[in-house]
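Researcher: Structure prediction, please.
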Amino acid sequence: MSWFEDTEADSQEIAAERLLIEAAELICEALAARDVSRAELARRLSVPAAEITMRLRGTRNMTLRSLGSTLHALGYEVAVELRDCEPIAPILQMHFAVETAGEGTSTRPLVGLAPLRLVDAVAS
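Model: Predicted structure follows.
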């Protein structure tokens, strides 16, 4: 028996935390790509610099609205994709991994939340 009980509530919490981490990573990626400091981002959003730090650390609940406005201030928008997290047949898992992840012949199932990705609003 494992110390971690895999319940639906636990799975939902993990999915939510994963999404928050991915969102924070996107903001960091956008900051680096645009060579913008956290202080400058805070100025653009008219919020205290501490607010940006709390969003990136996960100590402040980041809403879709705040994610959108944060990335817009950096010249990006977010594209959200849906990915089925239900287990699929092993042969489909292998095909899925090879076709979409570019990981060679990995047979590891690719399930869970789809990663968020940045879309350059200037190029769109």
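Model: The first strand starts at residue 76 and ends at 79.
Researcher: Thanks, that helps.
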